[in-house]
Amino acid sequence: MKMGNILVIIIFISIILILLKYGYRKKVDKMLFYLVIKAEKEFGGNTGKLKYSAVTTWVYEKLPNILKIIFTDKEIDTLIEESVNQMKEYLGEN
Fold first, then answer.
1. Could you give the C-alpha distances from 3 to 12, 13, 14, 24, 44, in angstroms and in order?
2. Which region holds residue 45: left if phi is over 0, alpha if psi is between -120 and 50, else beta?
3. Alpha-carbon span 58 to 52, nearest angstrom
4. Can you list the pairs that 77-82 forms with residues at least 24 positions away whose Cβ atoms lie under 8 Å?
5. What is the pLDDT of residues 19-50, one digit of tens each?
6. pTM of the model
């Protein structure tokens, strides 16, 4: 196989992975928001580390394998923090 063909295949696969990531971003956001609220209900206040641990465990149980590859641990951490902030805003309004 020529080097040019390999490069085209790599670019094509990269584009597909990027599209998958951004296509599933909203779904992952919604799932994390739900899981953060679930953890808050189950564990209550002053249990931040326990809630974080529970949410990360639950999210990795629910994510399809391809998304586990696409979303890094750091991105999941960031998304969890965004969901916690979103929950706080929601609770502050209601």
1. 14, 15, 16, 32, 57
2. beta
3. 10
4. 79/28, 79/29, 79/32, 80/32, 80/36, 80/52, 80/55, 80/56, 82/29, 82/32
5. 888 888 889 999 999 999 999 999 988 899 99
6. 0.77
